[in-house]
Amino acid sequence: MFLKKNKARKPRTITRRAVFAHNGQKATVSISLEAAATMEKLRAASEAMAHLEAQLKANPADETAQEEYGNAMLQLFACVLGRDGVEQLLDLYGKDLGSFVQDVRLFIFGDVVPAMRKAEARELRSGRTGTGWRWSNA
Which of 32, 43, 84, 95 could form a disulfide with 15 if both were Cys (CB 3.0 to 4.6 A apart)? Predict the structure, then answer.
């Protein structure tokens, strides 16, 4: 009888491409992410953002709290788009941060996160997290 090789399965990845347009200029952002790992990063970043948002609501005039909240939001966006993607979009939108946040949130939470949740659920259901040894691999 032949033994099966214990071969680690690759985690599911999602790929997306979006074109952002502002003031007649366009920027294209392409991403390829591992669903489970990126969702862990997003959860941690959103917990930090929720904590900072509570601090900001307690004292809205605090400039350091406002700056920390803005940095946390950029960190959340960087979990999905990467630092280069965020910088590219910040250069595109310039001082119009309201449109920047609106468009990027729509892309991330309307397109990328649902696809990652679906892929993560499929990984967890089938035991394909890509980490550790499973009896099904034996």
Answer: 32
The predicted model scores a pTM of: 0.79
Cβ distance 41 to 11 under 8 Å? Answer: no
Q: How many CA atoms lie within 13 A of 42 on its CB side?
A: 20
Contact call for residues 6 and 101 (beta carbons, < 8 A): no
What pLDDT digit, counting tens, does each position of 84-102 carry? 999 999 999 999 999 999 9
Q: Which three-class secondary structure string do you get for the chain? A: CCCCCCCCCCCCEEEEEEEEEECCEEEEEEEEEEHHHHHHHHHHHHHHHHHHHHHHHHCCCCHHHHHHHHHHHHHHHHHHHHHHHHHHHHHHHCCCHHHHHHHHHHHHHHHHHHHHHHHHHHHHHHCCCCCCCCHHHC
Instruction: Categorize the per-residue pLDDT at 135 as very low, low, confident or very high, splitting at 50, 70 and 90.
Output: low
